[in-house]
Design the sequence.
C-alpha cells in the first residue's frame, strides 16, 4: 500500500525559512505527480503554487520524493501542509494519495 510521509514542519519565525520533505513508501512506481497542498485555519485545502516567488519544490521522480522550501516566511503561510500524489498504474490510475500532513506554525 502506498503511503506518503511528510516531515519538517514546526515553528518558524516570520522572515525565516523552512523545508518540508515527503517520501512515498510501498509500491512507489505506482505513484507520480507528487506535490503539496496547504490547509490554513478556516480555509479549504488548496495547492501550493511553486512556480514563482517564495515557494520552491523539487521532485525526485525515481525515488518518489518531493520537498518544499519556503523563504521569507509570512504569518499567512501557517497551516497544515499535505503531500499529495496521483496513482499512475492501471489498478490505481487517477487515485489521489495524501499524507497525514505536517503543521507549520509562524510566530515570534
Sequence:
Amino acid at each position: 500500500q502506498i503511503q506518503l510521509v511528510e516531515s519538517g514542519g514546526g515553528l518558524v519565525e516570520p522572515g525565516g525559512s523552512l523545508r518540508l520533505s515527503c517520501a512515498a513508501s510501498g509500491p512507489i512506481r505506482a505513484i507520480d505527480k507528487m506535490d503539496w497542498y496547504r490547509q490554513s485555519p478556516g480555509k479549504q485545502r488548496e495547492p501550493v503554487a511553486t512556480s514563482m516567488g517564495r515557494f520552491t519544490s523539487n521532485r525526485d521522480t525515481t525515488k518518489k520524493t518531493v520537498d518544499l522550501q519556503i523563504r521569507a516566511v509570512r504569518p499567512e503561510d501557517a497551516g497544515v501542509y499535505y503531500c499529495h500524489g496521483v496513482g499512475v498504474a492501471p489498478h490505481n490510475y487517477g487515485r489521489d494519495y495524501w499524507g497525514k500532513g505536517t503543521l507549520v506554525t509562524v510566530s515570534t
